[in-house]
Amino acid sequence: MNTMKRRVGACLMALAMIVTMLPGLSITAKAATDYGLVVDYARVTSDRTSGDGWSYNPTTNTLTLNGYSYSKDGWVDGSYSGGIYAYSNLTIELIGNNSVDNTFSNAYCWNCGIYVKGSLTIKGNGSLTTKGGGDRVSYGIKANRLTVNSGTITALGKTARESNGIDISEDIIVNGGVITASAATSTEGDAFGIACRGSFTMNGGRVKATAENATGANRYSYGIWAIGTISNNGGVLSAEGKSYALYSGNNVYPEGYNGKDTTFQTYEDAASNMYVVSGVNNNGWSNREVKLTAASGYTIGKTASQFGSSISFTDATDNGSGIFYIKKNSNGTIYKGSISYKIDKTAPSVSGVKDGGVYCVSKEITVKDSHLAEVKDGSTVIATANGTYTLSAGTHNITVTDLAGNSTSMTVTINASHTPNEDDGDCTTAVTCKICGNVVTPAKEHNFILKSDQTGHWKECQNEGCEQTSAKEAHVSSGAATEDQAETCTVCGYTINAPLGHVCKNHLQKVDPVAATCTTEGHQAYYKCTCGKIYSDAEAQNETTESEVTIPANGHSYAESVYTWNEDNLTCTAVRTCKICNDRESEIGTAVTSVTPKDGCKSPEKTVYTVTFANSAFTAQTKEVITQEADAHTSSEWIVDKEATTAEAGSRHKECTVCRKVLETETIAKLASSKDNTKPSGKNDVDKKAADKKADVKPVSNVPKTGDTSHAGVWVMLMTAAVLSGICVILRRRRTI
Ligand SMILES: [Zn+2]
Ligand SMILES: [Zn+2]
Ligand SMILES: [Zn+2]
Ligand SMILES: [Zn+2]
Ligand SMILES: [Zn+2]
Ligand SMILES: [Zn+2]
Predict the structure, then answer these.
(1) Where along the chain do its domains lie?
(2) What is the percent of the chain where pLDDT is above 70?
(3) What pLDDT, on the 0 to 100 scale, is given for residue 355?
(4) Phi, psi of 315 (to 5 degrees)
């Protein structure tokens, strides 16, 4: 600020000096029009509007420098000296290369390469290098206001107590051109590449402002120093100071300057053919990185100091902007580019369901993404916006995609209905869904009814699926059952015992036993009920039947049958009589006769009577009777069968000469023999006695028996038959009577 005061003071002094000079000017004006401009150390007037390398157009107030070169002390007026000195506004047009070097070094002057006491406008295609003087102040350019439209301007302050490249009292506007403004070392004051007491505004062109050290106590070195704002709307700005690259009294800087750095640089815009952008989809989004690859002949970097073949922007952002620098390898020119990008690395969120999840009936899914593109179910787009959507029964392959191409996929199965957990058999607890936990069957109150069986009664819930029961309790009897009243439970009504109905025991009548006879049935004792049943016992325990208790008739017990032949043997009567009841059965059978005729002396005439009976109880009877005797045998003489010897007796017989029947046999006594005495006694005597004894006995016993005995038997038989026949006839008669 001390600097400011000093400068203001200096201006007042200069003004006073100019005022004192006015009478002189008016005198000169009478000779020629003075245009208030000094070029090449002489005033520009209507008589002098051009010189070596310069010309002035008063109409346009334009000084054209065309190959102008000036290097000597500047025009001094008041506190300023200038290689070109203008007393008011001036436009300088540059053609070719021009230089203005104020060599004036003075302890009291502001020694400027170009001094314009008004607004300075520079244009043209040429260049100008302008240098201030030395000692007190050295400014390359000093003006109230500066506008540069084109041209290449190099404004240098030399080492001085205060060195500035360009020092402007009000605003600076750069629309084009190339400006290089440099301050050398300032030994007392601040060093400014460009000092601007208004605002510095750049709309195009190139500005490079640098300052060497300000070596005075508490002095600073700035690339560009402005009381107002510093703005870079276009063009390339480069600033470097030993203290700060830029200083804005309003604290308004070009984008990218942090208020501290000693260097600041903007760059020419990178052209789109210098790099290739990849990683961005058709929607303008990237889901990973936005990659910038330098084109052939270029390298690229995120800073202006490090270059490579490519750079990437990877931070997720909806409106990212990236700065990059591209260096042209052939000449080292650095271009600056910016890129807007959108990176979304986050897949859409799908909530409400899980991948592979199984749900019931329907399910809502909530889809959320900051840049949702679409929601697909299979291949069908079901939504294109964030929201909650309902999935119906079925299998859904949900894919949610955002504009950047991130996607979230999941498969969800929606069952058409709930899957109930197994019922616990208690209706007072709800049945829930195995899948979703929802209540499928709400809890209820038990709906008990009494159930019963033979052994008791209990409560049982009637609600479907409920298996709850109370403990079984014994029936409470209403009293024993009677024939017409049941025994029931007074609690549940169960019929413990049905009405007994007809109880035979109560209605029995005893039937006494009856003995059987030969011809009639009897029965055992029994009990007969009014219902018709009969029992063998009074307790009606053993039911029986009439046939079982019946005792059959005994039947007759006949004695041996008695058969009685009639006298004529032509009938035979059979009789039998019951030993119990004297019942008598008889039958007269008629005989069938069979006659065997007489055969001379051999056999008599025999008649056989045979009677059979219809009653099988009687057996057939046969009777043989000699109805005519056989003729008598005609006996022969003795016929010796064996001659008697001395040792042995002989035998002889008589026989019928007709039938040869042996009628008579006889032993012939043993003959006497001389040999008897010669034979040893003893044993022989005994044998002889035995033989004699035999011979003696046999004839005696044999003779009378033969024939006699058999005749006697026949007679006995005949007699018996005769008697029996008589009896039969008698009996028959008696019965008939
Ligand atoms: Zn469920
Ligand atoms: Zn229940
Ligand atoms: Zn009961
Ligand atoms: Zn009965
Ligand atoms: Zn009988
Ligand atoms: Zn005979």
Answers:
(1) 2-266, 272-343, 349-415, 504-551, 562-622, 639-725
(2) 87
(3) 93
(4) -75, 135
Distance 441 CA to ligand 2 centre (A): 12
Distance in Å, CA 636 to ligand 6 centroid? 10
Residue 494 CA to ligand 2 centre (angstroms): 22
Range name among 247-251, 326-330, 727-731 with the lowest pLDDT average: 727-731
Q: Counting ligands in written order, which one lies closest to the CA of residue 577?
A: 5
Nearest ligand to residue 533 Cα: 4
493, two tokens: 């009504």
Distance 367 CA to ligand 1 centre (A): 22
Angle (CA) 700 701 706, round 5°: 110
> Which ligand sits closest to the CA of 359?
1
What is the number of helices (H) and of strands (E) in the chain? 4, 60
Range among 23-32, 377-386, 684-693 with highest mean pLDDT value: 377-386
Ligand number nearest to the C-alpha of 507: 4
Residue 99 phi, psi dihedral angles, 5° rounding: -145, 140
Q: How far is CA 492 from CA 207, 495, 574, in A?
A: 114, 9, 84
Ligand nearest 426 Cα, by number?
2
Q: Show the tokens assigned to 356.
A: 């592979």
Q: Is the pLDDT of residue 326 over 90?
A: yes
What 3-state class would DSSP assign to 3? helix
pLDDT, tens digit, 9 for 90 and up, residues 685-731: 444 444 444 444 444 334 444 444 445 545 555 555 555 554 444 44
Stretch among 42-56, 84-98, 645-659, 669-683 having the lowest mean pLDDT: 669-683
**Of 380, 415, 421, 2, which Cα lies nearest the Cα of 190?**
2
Cα–Cα distance between 177 and 64 in angstroms, integer? Answer: 16
Residue 506 CA, ligand 4 centroid: distance in Å: 8
pLDDT band at 106 (very low <50, low <70, confident <90, very high): confident
664 Cα to the center of ligand 6, angstroms:
12
CA atoms of 730 and 367, how far apart (whole Å): 144
Q: How far is the CA of 432 from the centre of ligand 1 (A)?
A: 8
Identify the CATH class of 349-415: mainly beta
Q: How far is the CA of 209 from the centre of ligand 5 (A)?
A: 175
Domains 272-343 and 349-415 share a fold: yes
> pLDDT higher for 464 or 152?
152
Counting ligands in written order, the one closest to the CA of 585 is: 5
CA of 398 to the centre of ligand 1 (A): 20
pLDDT, tens digit (0-9, with 9 covering 90-100), for 459-476? 999 988 898 999 999 999
| Cα 613 to middle of ligand 5, angstroms | 21
Tell me the average pLDDT across 116-135.
95
Q: Which ligand is nearest to the CA of 448?
A: 2
Q: What was the pLDDT predicted at 708?
A: 45
Q: In the predicted model, what is the mean pLDDT of the chain?
A: 87
The pair of structure tokens assigned to 135 is 């000692």
Distance 464 CA to ligand 2 centre (A): 8
Contact 623, 721 (CB under 8 A): yes
- What is the residue-wise DSSP string for 8-45? HHHHHHHHHHHHHHHHHHHHHHTTS-EEEEEETTEEEE
Return the closest-CA partner of residue 153 out of 119, 194, 185, 196.
194
Q: What is the pLDDT of residue 45?
A: 93
Ligand lying closest to the C-alpha of residue 491: 3
User: Using CA atoms, how far apart are residues 214 and 221, in angstroms rounded to an integer?
Assistant: 5
Q: What is the CATH number of domain 272-343?
A: 2.60.40
Quote the ligand 1 centre to 236 CA distance (angstroms).
69
Q: What would the mean pLDDT of 384-394 be, rounded to a whole number?
A: 94
**Position 162, amino acid:** E
Ligand nearest to the CA of 516: 5
Point out the ligand nearest to the CA of residue 464: 2
Query: How far does the chain reach from its first CA to its final CA, in angstroms?
Result: 203
Q: How far is the CA of 477 from the centre of ligand 3 (A)?
A: 8
CB atoms within 10 A of CB 24: 9
